[in-house]
Amino acid sequence: MTTAGDIMHRGAQWIPAHETLDRAAQLMRELNVGALPISDENERLCGILTDRDIVVGCVAMGHDPSRVTAGDMARGTPRWIEANADVSEVLSQMGEHQIRRLPVIENKRLVGMISESDLAQHLSDDQLAIFVEGVYARSATR
After folding, report:
1. What is the pLDDT of residue 77?
2. What is the pLDDT of residue 15?
3. Residue 37: which of 120, 118, 104, 106 has the closest Cα?
4. Three-state SS sequence of 54-114
5. Which residues contact residue 101 at a Cβ distance below 8 angstroms, ignoring those fewer than 6 apart?
6. Residue 48: helix, strand or coil by DSSP?
7. 102 vs 115: CA distance, rounded Å
8. Most C-beta atoms within 10 A of its C-beta, which of 30, 48, 61, 107?
9. What is the pTM of this model?
């Protein structure tokens, strides 16, 4: 059985909710990633911040990224998966919620992230087709 832990990208890092978006952008650059999980004061997942969120939700709205926090951008119910979850559960979560990145949790701690590139590297063509149908086909009909 292939698990979330088998396909995830290890070494994911949180951005604390109190950190500013300019710091988040710097961290994204340092880590060469386009998204960071947002943690509350107890290191619990409270959202995910993307580079697009910073640009569209802050800069393009005329806000100062040195004054807006990652927590200000956290919206909705954060989605995550346990490291020992079967890959079919990963595909189901990502497809059902139309998400392209999924934090992986083990013992209540962030241990990795699963992105589209992780799926492409580790899954069969049939499994990738399920993901693409779930995430992209539904969004095109909305």
Report:
1. 84
2. 95
3. 104
4. HHHHCHHHCCCCCCCEHHHHCCCCCCCEECCCEHHHHHHHHHHCCCCEEEEEECCEEEEEE
5. 35, 48, 50, 113, 114, 115, 116
6. strand
7. 7
8. 48
9. 0.84
Three-class secondary structure of residue 124 per DSSP: coil
- CB atoms under 10 Å from CB of 70, counted, come to 27
- Integer-rounded Cα Rg, in Å, for the chain is 15
pLDDT digits (tens, 9 = 90+) for 82-141: 999 999 999 889 988 888 899 999 988 899 999 988 988 988 888 888 778 877 775 555
Residue 116's alpha-carbon distances to 41, 70, 71, 91, 105, in angstroms, are 29, 23, 25, 11, 18
Residue 139 to residue 93: CA distance in whole angstroms: 15
Is the pLDDT at 13 greater than 60, yes or no?
yes
**Residues in CB range of 109: below 8 A, 6 or more apart:** 43
Separation of alpha carbons 38 and 110, rounded Å: 11
The four Cα atoms 63, 28, 87, 89 give a dihedral, to 10 degrees, of: -20
Supply the pLDDT for residue 134: 76
